Amino acid sequence: MTGTTQDDYTDRYARRVRGMTTSEIRALFAVASRPEVVSLAGGSPYVAALPLDAVGEMLGRLAAEEGTTSLQYGIGQGTAELREGICEVMSLSGIDASTGASPDDVVVTVGGQQALDLVARLFLDPGDVVLAEGPTYVGALGAFQAAQAQVRHVAMDADGLIPAALEAAIAETAGRAKFLYTIPTYQNPAGVTLTDERREQVLDICERAGLLVVEDDPYGTLSFAGDAPRPLRARRRDGVFYLSTFSKTFAPGLRVGWILAPHAVREKLVMASEAQILCPSAFAQAAVTKYLATMPWREQIKSYREIYRERRDALLDALEDLMPAGTTWTRPEGGLFVWATLPDGLDSKAMMPRAIAARVAYVPGTGFFADGSGAGHMRLNFSFPPPDRIREGVRRLAGVMEQELAMRAVFGTPTRHRRRGHAGADTPGPDLA
Amino acid sequence: MTGTTQDDYTDRYARRVRGMTTSEIRALFAVASRPEVVSLAGGSPYVAALPLDAVGEMLGRLAAEEGTTSLQYGIGQGTAELREGICEVMSLSGIDASTGASPDDVVVTVGGQQALDLVARLFLDPGDVVLAEGPTYVGALGAFQAAQAQVRHVAMDADGLIPAALEAAIAETAGRAKFLYTIPTYQNPAGVTLTDERREQVLDICERAGLLVVEDDPYGTLSFAGDAPRPLRARRRDGVFYLSTFSKTFAPGLRVGWILAPHAVREKLVMASEAQILCPSAFAQAAVTKYLATMPWREQIKSYREIYRERRDALLDALEDLMPAGTTWTRPEGGLFVWATLPDGLDSKAMMPRAIAARVAYVPGTGFFADGSGAGHMRLNFSFPPPDRIREGVRRLAGVMEQELAMRAVFGTPTRHRRRGHAGADTPGPDLA
């Protein structure tokens, strides 16, 4: 072990760094990746379902035959070919030329995370407010925190974001809210989907309030029964930024995502991205372009859907069969996640070390709220472990919860651990997010 | 053409966006990539010199045989295997365990640009000052500008940064300067190298002033005669951040760079990177790891050196033979760039449209100064075009300059165009940076 372990640089950091702290939970997640642990904590797609030999052959040819461009620098916005492919993908969801989508207004990013960070950079000054579902995506909280913005959560129910709660939040933060950040479809972590009716209401409310909408849609095509409701961007062209990624429909290891933005904003996004990464990987872009052009990508999405539906069913069945009374959970129609609410008095964060000892991992609900609330909840992933492992994980988890409840019966209800500050401190690393 | 072309979002942008403006020069660079134009503007390595078939075979196997990890998410810091490989690469330059370098203190980044941006994010508040060579790397100016910092340039001569000028700059910016940003070896764009003696002086000056040093070393191994002087980080462990990339020694299309940072700072860098991109590409990392482990990467660097030395000679010979009297230029011992100073009265920015019309491109000196000065200079690249194209490009450029000088003789000396504000506005896109 070398290097200074004490932080002699504390006085030198920029103000935006002050909210960044490491967490004891983070270390636990390193353990969660051990093979004996059933991890329901991750957000990893099941890439073993890809035709890896064919993908390998495709990637090999990209370097051998087109290496002088695929291994070279590219332009900051991303290649025209990939941006056209992205428009083809978006047209599946009703975002097409008739709703003003054009390759010229697409910016290729390093996964969905850079898309979020660029939007944060472009619009957020310190002290600005972002409205976001509560709970919401961990990585979005990280990007907004890095921009020194504050997140005001808006409540959801089984039908997604509650319009009246959105109106109340807008009134409360009058003039300080820059945008609504929302994952309307198969939300991460809640697993719920905004209904058609509410989509129109949310758009109307935001338009009336002059509030921009940042729509994050990584899971929209991963539906288990029929198609998801059309994205917000397919319904309204002005004031809606649409973000998505190939991480869930192809492979996250290439880090290719995108933003569809109004033309004038697109130029700023490109400049901001160049300051950050110069240009996205030409090789990764060529890989996705070739994948879309030569491989059965629509069938691959169907294959992911079937695998995840089976695993979702395994998780819901196991929860039904094994969870202690008083536990409730959402029933997602697509995506990767179930959000569970624990029996009163249980604390998902405090319970983590015991869960890891029992060889099961999840993400405590505290990671998904900017104010550190959420200890009564946890996120459970069903995309990565096979069905029998999912059931075994739930069995272990239920055992830990029963023990906790028994202790509670003996020693009384503990005060639930609450914490203020940056939620990211409680979050796993990206391999588990 | 779809999308709003007028910017209705002007009032909504964060303050950091205000300095970002597009430029008429930028559009010219799009033209510069046409095949009939000899581009001396780029910074692209000659990746055609790579054994592309072998690289392709390697990449294909990575997906086919290791796809379940290489196409999956990874950890924010980057893989342990690649960080070990990076330490092996750094040990070539004398940065090793004896000087406190450890894989644990390496953060893998999306090329050298993200490394710069992360350092900027970590240390720069609005109004903070960065000391940097004048001229300096375009992308660094972009990253510092995005952090709303100010750049105070420090003069160079043929031996690199002038220590007395550094001392004066430190005195002038007392308390506001956060770090010295320097490219000591084969500087971009100046092509000069800081001497051994001055390296010690610069380190002593910064240590006395309590000023951090950010050492950017993308070109250090690309020497044409003997090895370069040892990096600053090989001489001093405390307070020096070392940044480099595989873009110039392997391939930029994979976007893999790194930072070697003091241990405590490394943790913050990882958190900042996760907020920005979640994690670097597992595939790109596996590609570089495998490249270092199984292919003759040291021989490839030698091959790049020989190609670039021949092209540097071609450029210097052509300049000597063809440039109008009064033109001067640097004589780099490595790297990719020559910095030329024009005869009095010529303006490299104003001349660009005529150069493009004459089918030759360069980067005007104005791109490399935060205050828009530098119109009397230009950067010439010799890594990408073959020797005969370099000579043809210089011939065309000399013709344009002769015409300009003739006009000047007739119409008198024009006022040199000077501009205040963000230097990035005058810069080419990343394919040319």
TrEMBL record, chains A, B:
One of its GO terms (molecular function) is transaminase activity. Pfam families: Aminotran_1_2. It comes from the Bacteria. The keyword DNA-binding applies. Residues 414-433 are annotated as: Disordered. Its cofactor is pyridoxal 5'-phosphate. One of its GO terms (biological process) is alpha-amino acid metabolic process. Residues 51-397 form the Aminotransferase class I/classII large domain. Keywords: Aminotransferase, DNA-binding, Pyridoxal phosphate, Transferase. Belongs to the class-I pyridoxal-phosphate-dependent aminotransferase family. Homodimer. This is DNA-binding transcriptional MocR family regulator. It comes from Krasilnikovia cinnamomea.
